[in-house]
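User: Sequence recovery, please. Input:
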């Protein structure tokens, strides 16, 4: 059974807006969501910039009791899911709830709650640690709370594969519909890790950009002056439906997911294979399972986080796979504007790819000012949005642990 799977709803909570239209407008205008951290005092940190979701008001989405019992990463996921379901127009009162589910990816889960309760333990003792700590911090709180929100009763779990989590979640949700387990899935990624502990750890790994004096210029994928990624937060959630199910209720269809492939580098826990073998394999096999040839892909939303090594390796893998067609590809990194949302990145970027297909418009890679001899031969859509007729796109996500995934989407047609 190979049922067709389409995207019918989009929900975004990001540093560039808390709705798909705000996000899309900001991306197309080349706006950066990176700024000085306001969540805590960073005066002792070497890195003091991030992509925060500013002015997120939990009270808009939750009552006081709910708000207290949800970590920020779960709040983001539920809010984005509400937006996605509203956008899809689906009425779960008219849907078999045992054939609707949710799979959500996150890289780290409730780190805010862990840090907060650890402080209480040290300062006030074990009797003062919250009994709600575990339900708040566990990674599966996000899909669990989404299921409660919509009373959907089928497949429900989290995927944790670092920065590939959101894309892996979408792939598994796609598979559950394609092979007949479900008709509707709410899926994507969520993350909130702008905390003293996380930023300390990432900065000490030398993974983060230290361009504190120019936050909006700090994330610069493919540029020669890149010096690390900018940590970010948020949630990107999509609604997937089986095609005939969606058509029967006259749903608006943004795009079709055609296939995906996953691989692992089996090389290093926190660095990509130097030859990009895992990335190459994921992209190559994603094309095969989608029944497409290389020449049919017009655009790639690159993983490209703005790290010196990672961007170069991905570029070389793309050129090796696509050969002479590589010069016809447009390859941009929306992380240049959003920063790196870690486990949420794949969800947000798949959502963006659906909008790219619908609008035949490619958001740019901003801050591309110094061409890098190590990253050459591709159209990085530098600094300006590009209009281009697009039928098929690919979205790449790679994560610590060696995880690689490529998802292929196409413009919907009967």
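Assistant: Recovered sequence (414 residues):
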């Amino acid at each position: 059974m190979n049922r067709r799977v389409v995207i019918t709803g989009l929900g975004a909570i990001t540093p560039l807006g808390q709705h798909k239209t705000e996000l899309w407008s900001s991306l197309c205008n080349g706006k950066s969501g990176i700024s000085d951290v306001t969540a805590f005092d960073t005066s002792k940190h070497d890195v003091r910039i991030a992509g925060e979701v500013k002015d997120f008001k939990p009270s808009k989405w939750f009552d006081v009791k709910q708000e207290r019992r949800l970590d920020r990463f779960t709040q983001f996921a539920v809010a984005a899911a509400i937006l996605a379901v509203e956008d899809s127009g689906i009425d779960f009162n008219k849907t078999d709830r045992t054939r609707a589910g949710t799979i959500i990816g996150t890289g780290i889960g409730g780190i805010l709650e862990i840090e907060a309760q650890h402080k209480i333990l040290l300062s006030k003792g074990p009797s003062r640690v919250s009994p709600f700590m575990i339900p708040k911090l566990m990674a599966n709180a996000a899909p669990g709370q989404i299921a409660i929100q919509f009373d959907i009763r089928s497949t429900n779990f989290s995927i944790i594969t670092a920065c590939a989590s959101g894309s892996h979640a979408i792939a598994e949700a796609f598979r559950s519909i394609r092979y007949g387990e479900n008709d509707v899935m709410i899926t994507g990624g969520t993350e909130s890790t702008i905390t003293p502990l996380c930023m300390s750890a990432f900065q000490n790994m030398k993974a983060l950009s230290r361009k504190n004096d120019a936050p909006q210029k700090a994330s610069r994928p493919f540029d020669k002056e890149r010096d690390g990624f900018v940590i970010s937060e948020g949630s990107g959630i999509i609604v997937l439906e089986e095609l005939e199910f969606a058509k029967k209720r006259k749903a608006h269809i943004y795009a079709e997911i055609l296939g995906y492939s996953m691989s692992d580098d089996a090389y290093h826990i926190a660095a990509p294979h130097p030859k990009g073998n895992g990335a190459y394999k994921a992209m190559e096999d994603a094309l095969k399972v989608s029944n497409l040839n290389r020449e049919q892909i017009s655009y790639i939303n690159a993983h490209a986080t703005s790290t010196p090594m990672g961007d170069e390796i991905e570029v070389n893998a793309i050129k090796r796979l696509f050969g002479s067609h590589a010069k016809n590809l447009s390859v941009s990194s929306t992380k240049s504007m959003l920063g790196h949302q870690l486990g949420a990145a794949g969800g947000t970027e798949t959502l963006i790819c659906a909008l790219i297909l619908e609008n035949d418009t490619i958001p740019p890679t901003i801050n591309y000012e110094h061409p890098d001899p190590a990253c050459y031969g591709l159209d990085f859509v530098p600094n300006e949005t590009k209009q281009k007729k697009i039928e098929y796109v690919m979205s790449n996500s790679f994560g610590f642990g060696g995880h690689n995934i490529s998802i292929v989407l196409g413009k919907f047609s009967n």
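The mean pLDDT is 98.
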